[in-house]
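Batch manifest, entry 17 of 40.
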Amino acid sequence: MASEAQKTEQQADHIREVFIRSSLVTASVTFVLCIAAGWGRAKGWEVALIVCSAAFLVGSLVGFLLSLAGDETGADAPFAKMRDAMVAVIAGVTGVGLAKITTVTHALGKIPVMADDAANAHFVPLLVVIYLGLGFYFMYFLRRFVLNSALVASEAELARLQLGAADLVAELSSKLPERLFLGHDLIQDIKAVDSNLRVQLGKSLQQPDVQSFLDNCEAYVEKSTPLRFSTITKAASIYYYRSYYEKDSQKKADLQQNALDWLDRAIGMDPADVLLSVRKADILYAQGQYRTASKILEDLNDNPESPQYVTEWLGLYLLFVPNRTADAIKFSKDYFTRFPGDASSPYNAARGYAELYRQECDVSGVVAIPASTNRSESLRYLSQSIALDPTGRDWAREESVAVPEIKHSSRQWFICLANDTEFKSMTAPRAVGTGS
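Output type: structure tokens
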């Protein structure tokens, strides 16, 4: 069954076809009428065509201003001000009396169209009145009974879909943990999210109304139809969350690009919205655009309205930017100082120190430097992270082998510590029932 938006589109297509045909007929009749009226007088048909066009345009302008709807009728809307001014002028002209109107009629009758001046004096004013009416008719009735009603119907359908999308976005934002967006690929990998809730939210993202909402949004953008800011942000949010549920790499990339496109539209309307920029940075990071993502977060980090986790994300993102490892460690340590119960920031600090230790070993041409400060700091922060979250033990072990069984990270941060006795003891698998 076709949606209301599709029905509205079909009606609009039919009306558009009728309007085009009637316009062509009117233009043809006008052309023939002007040639017939100006026959026998030099350039008479050309003058007649100019008179008809001018009267039609004036009538269209009046019809347009008298058929304003929606946001166009606001007190501060420029078209509404033009309409009020026009009504005042019409009222003033009407009030000057019949004598003045007769003078205008006589002046119109002197416009050289017909060869017979006596007939011309009556024909031209009548021509002006007819085309004033035609212009008004075409514009007023087209907008009043076709375009405006179609706009209202489509906006009502979009509003209905938008309401459902708003509920979904609010549900996702409130139930999914922020650490979901910190270096993990799939929502299914986050143990903090209940498995039943994961499935439920995933199905919600694929609801027909949600897809219909996105399809309508894409159609409006393709037609250059303006959308409200709230609509744009909801579309961006849905694509954003969908990208985390998608397993197929190509589909995930497509969803990420869709999210970026809609985030850019929203940011263009409100550059001061911090959350939009944070989500854009998150998508860019997922795409491997680490430098650009980090630049966005660094610009936000000093903003008092930015969420605290921006500092934590910088501790991760900058690890992937050449020559920024020390800065990444600084952000991770700063966040850990503020939130000592967080396990991710000390883990990322350990990654950073391990990377510096690897570089140190490479420069020295050795496989290990037991007295290295970078080594000891990496192990110290890794120990603190594991104490807070024992799963860090498995992650570190996976990130220390060249070909991991399950690759959680795009880099093997701890490979320089793979044969380190203390590291191996710290990350060794624990038997069930032995605790952390």
